[in-house]
Amino acid sequence: MTASAVPRGPGATAWAPETVTTDPYNAQTPRAALTERLTPADALFVRDHFGVPRTPAARWRLRIGGAVTTPVTLGYEELLALGREGRREFDVVLECAGNGRAQMVPRPPGLPWDQRAVGCARFAGVPFHLVAERAGVAPETVEFVFAGADTGSVHGHPAAFERSLPLAEALHPDTLLATHMNGEPLPPEHGAPVRLVVPGRYAVADVKWLVEATAVTEPFTGVFQAEEYVYVASEGIPDGPVSAIRVKSLITAPEPDDDLRRGTQTVVRGRAWSGAGLAVGRVEVRAEHEDEDGPGEERAGGTEWHDADLEPPTGPYAWTSWSYRWTPRKPGRYRLLARATDAHGDTQPPRAPWNAQGYGCNPVAAVDVVVV
Ligand SMILES: Nc1nc2c(c(=O)[nH]1)N[C@H]1C(S)=C(S)[C@@H](COP(=O)(O)O)O[C@H]1N2
Ligand SMILES: [Mo]
User: Fold this and answer.
1) Radius of gyration of the chain (CA)
2) Once rounded to an integer, what is the mean pLDDT over residues 69-80?
3) What 8-state DSSP symbol labels residue 32?
4) Domain made up of 248-371: CATH architecture
5) Residue 230 pLDDT > 70, yes or no?
6) DSSP calls for 208-238
7) 172 within 8 A of 189, measured Cβ to Cβ
8) Is ligand 1 within 6 A of the CB of residue 17?
9) Most ligand 1 atoms within 8 A of CB, residue of 162, 204, 210 to mutate
10) Sequence-ordered alpha helix ranges (H) in the chain
């Protein structure tokens, strides 16, 4: 176990994400918190491009403008009042598109996340379409551009954090103006008082500290839409912005320093998720002993993949918990592998898929353990 869980009085636990950079603040979810079905708010990874703007809910305003019939400005209380008709709440996997980048060879530029820029939290809020309908969306609208209150500089130019969504996704009933996370008002670092939550999309879509939604009639080409967060192949050819989360799994147990004995059963556990097919259809586990050919290689007649047991997820956007009972027969080093397949039939590839900015890194999950 890591030392990240700090006791705070009887029964209570305070977490702290593991700092990756301090200015701006970026941190990943501690390993121990991934054993929780819902990631505690104070353990969830944080990805900030600029600073954390602090706007009290009473002073917060959302401006809805652009190609609309009537521009609308909405306060926090009005938003909550709208929520009385249509508040929605569900568990959502939040994953940074750059999660896992540290595994890519050669390592692309960007934050060196291992596989812990991910978590699953319960978000509650008001569907954005209820607000958009008040403003009246012009028929020629193709996208909505969402802007946060944070600004800074990118490549030496002043920039705001702005991201667009195609109209159908923006108006999808599950695209939320989220006010709450895990039953509490959003904390400042996760976008207080209101953030966008677009389930199933890489979390760059989930604009924090949301202050503006603008209907546009041409596709948006801001820096965070058209330059950053774009898949660029090795030939330098852009292949579209990151969007749906790729199928992925992680192993939460055993941990590398766990005491494993031959002939004794141990439970291999983890999580799996996908944004494209949403439902995870299958998770397979494999234990490769050091005496076998190189780890990670596909071999006919070699170690087999075994189906893990899946627990029903807590909702369509939540992760799936899985487990597999494993009894190692011989001592030595093993590599445990997990491979998820989603309802669309997409499977994790054996090796990290490379692209210039290091996005969508979803190779089979691996943990190295020793059996005595
Ligand atoms: N306004 C604003 N929203 C933002 C960002 C940001 O820097 N500014 N980062 C995005 C990225 S890249 C990610 S991965 C998620 C991270 O959400 P979290 O910090 O709540 O985990 O927020 C997204 N929303
Ligand atoms: Mo991200």
Assistant:
1) 22
2) 97
3) G
4) Sandwich (2.60)
5) yes
6) SSEEEEEEESS----IIIIISSEEE-TTS-E
7) no
8) no
9) 204
10) 76-86, 128-135, 167-170
Q: How many whole angstroms separate alpha carbon 129 and alpha carbon 116?
A: 32
Locate the ligand 1 atom nearest the alpha carbon of residue 190 and give its number: 20
The pTM for the full model equals: 0.93
Largest separation between any pair of C-alpha atoms in the chain: 71
Q: Whose CA is nearest to atom 21 of ligand 1?
A: 46
| Pairing verdict, β 210-216 and 61-66 | parallel
Q: 119 is written with which tokens?
A: 């978590």
- How many other CB atoms sit within 10 Å of the CB of residue 108? 18
Task: State in Å: Cα 21 to ligand 1 middle.
Answer: 14
Q: Is the dihedral of CA 239, 245, 246, 252 positive or negative?
A: positive
CATH superfamily of 2-241: Oxidoreductase, molybdopterin-binding domain (3.90.420.10)
- In the chain, residues under CATH classification 3.90.420.10 are 2-241
Q: What is the pLDDT of residue 234?
A: 77
DSSP track, 280-334: EEEEEEEEEETTSSSTT---TTSSPPEEPEEPPPSSTTSPEEEEEEE---S-EEE
Number of other residues whose CB lies within 10 A of the CB of residue 157 = 7
Predicted confidence band at 293 (pLDDT cuts at 50, 70, 90)? low
- Tokens for 247, please give them: 């199928």
Strand bridging mode 18-21 / 13-14 = unpaired
Give the ligand whose atoms come closest to the C-alpha of residue 42: 1
State the virtual CA torsion across 88, 91, 97, 98 in degrees, nearest 10.
140
User: Which ligand is closest in space to the CA of residue 209?
Assistant: 1
CATH 2.60.40.650, the chain: domain bounds:
248-371
Sign for the pseudo-dihedral over CA of 29, 33, 35, 41: negative
